[in-house]
Amino acid sequence: MFNDHWMMDHGFIERTSYGNLRDLIGRRHLDREDYVLEPGIPLSQAIKRMAMYAVSQMVVMNGNRVEGIIDESDILMAMVHDRENANRPVSDFMTRRLETVSPDASVNDLIPVFKSDRVAIVMDDDQYYGLITKIDLINFLRKQLP
Questions:
Q1: pTM score, two decimals?
Q2: Closest Cα to residue 103, out of 21, 30, 16, 15?
Q3: Which domain holds residue 126?
Q4: Which has the closest alpha carbon to 107: 118, 117, 120?
Q5: 46, 34 in Cβ contact below 8 A?
Q6: Mutual orientation of helices 72-81 and 43-53 as an angle, nearest 10°?
Q7: Of these four, 80, 83, 108, 134, which has the most CB atoms within 10 Å of its CB?
Q8: How far from chain centre, in Å, is Cα 28?
């Protein structure tokens, strides 16, 4: 009835704590909790996966390399412009301008990323750890309350 992600999100299963921004990541890449897309899949498949996983953005990876991110705005613009875009690859519509932060960065370093209406990609060198969204930060801060 309840999956492990739900159990973790609600505090029934403890997650490893790193003492840095990796603790804010909702779905950790190294633990295979996240959902990623390959650059060549059709936009229609990205739409289905985002709906299935109830997420509004997904990282696009080629092997272990982050190539971009696609979100609901990218998809809306593509589909409103031309419905045939559903058959084109995700790489044609993804955002390549990534806002990366080190796992050792401060929570305050996330604020400019969020103010520019972006998602924080947590990486060091070529190691991708996951995304931090506004709601991830809100959930983290909520858990700090008495």
A1: 0.77
A2: 21
A3: 17-144
A4: 120
A5: no
A6: 140
A7: 134
A8: 9
Give the helix/strand (H/E) hosting 98. none
Tokens 């696009």 identify what position? Answer: 60
Strand order in the sheet with 57-62: 36-37, 57-62, 65-71
Which residues, including other chains, have CB under 8 Å from residue 25's CB and lie 6 or more apart? 122, 129, 130, 131, 132, 136
Residue 84 located in a structural domain: yes
Q: Can you say whether the dihedral through the CA atoms of 45, 126, 74, 50 is positive or negative?
A: positive
Average pLDDT for 30-38:
70
Which two structure tokens, joined as six digits, stand for 9? 């999100």
Residues 132, 24: Cα–Cα separation, whole Å: 6
- Bigger pLDDT: 82 or 140? 82
Residue with tokens 């996983």: 53
Other Cβ atoms closer than 10 A to 37:
23
- Domain count within the chain: 1
Q: Are 30 and 103 in contact (CB under 8 A)?
A: no
**Is there a contact between 110 and 132 (Cβ–Cβ < 8 Å)?**
yes
- Dist CA 92 CA 43 (whole Å): 9
Q: Is residue 7 part of a domain?
A: no
